[in-house]
Design goal:
Layout lengths: L1 H25 L9 E2 L2 E2 L10 E5 L6 E5 L6 E6 L2 E7 L16 H7 L6 E4 L5 E7 L3 E8 L2 E9 H4 L7
Length: 166
């Protein structure tokens, strides 16, 4: 009887640990939301337990790039301890409107048929198209050779910049 009781406890603990693992796996998502990614939101406070500071801005010590340790090709721009943009060039991650890196400009227009984008000239390569949404949050696609080379979501004052923090 004693062995049977221990067996039930071990099986119960195994099931609990497996369900916790499954829940942890479900929180990882390969799609940006309009206001965040992987549980980190635009305009949220920088959390050093979730994000690691990687690169500080040369002329603005309150601005830096961070990573989350899960997605190596996703970067978080933080200014004054607030996440202001989240961007990627990872082909396996989609924008809030299911646009992926490598998609054509035509696909971008098709996915955003309900809104007119704002075209911004990019002095480094090609151009960018920004689509604004409520709460002054938007998505910006960086286009080169009529293909999406990267995209980011963020707040109005930052998505329009080409060099990060000003």
């Amino acid at each position: 009887m004693e062995k049977y009781k221990k067996y039930k406890i071990l099986v119960g603990l195994l099931l609990i640990s497996l369900s916790n693992f499954a829940c942890a796996q479900q929180t990882v998502d390969n799609k940006f939301q309009i206001d965040g990614f992987n549980g980190i939101g635009i305009n949220s406070k920088f959390n050093s337990k979730r994000l690691k500071k990687e690169l500080e801005h040369e002329q603005n010590s309150t601005c830096f790039i961070a990573t989350d340790g899960v997605y190596k090709n996703v970067s978080y721009m933080v200014d004054n301890d607030i996440v202001v943009t989240i961007g990627t060039d990872d082909r396996n991650i989609s924008s809030p409107f299911n646009v992926k890196i490598g998609d054509s400009l035509k696909v971008v227009y098709q996915k955003h048929f309900h809104k007119k984008g704002i075209r911004l000239e990019n002095p480094y390569s090609g151009f960018s198209i920004v689509y604004w949404h409520p709460n002054k949050i938007g998505v910006k696609y960086n286009i080169s050779n009529n293909k999406v080379e990267s995209f980011e979501i963020g707040s109005k004052g930052y998505l329009e910049l080409m060099e990060g923090c000003s």
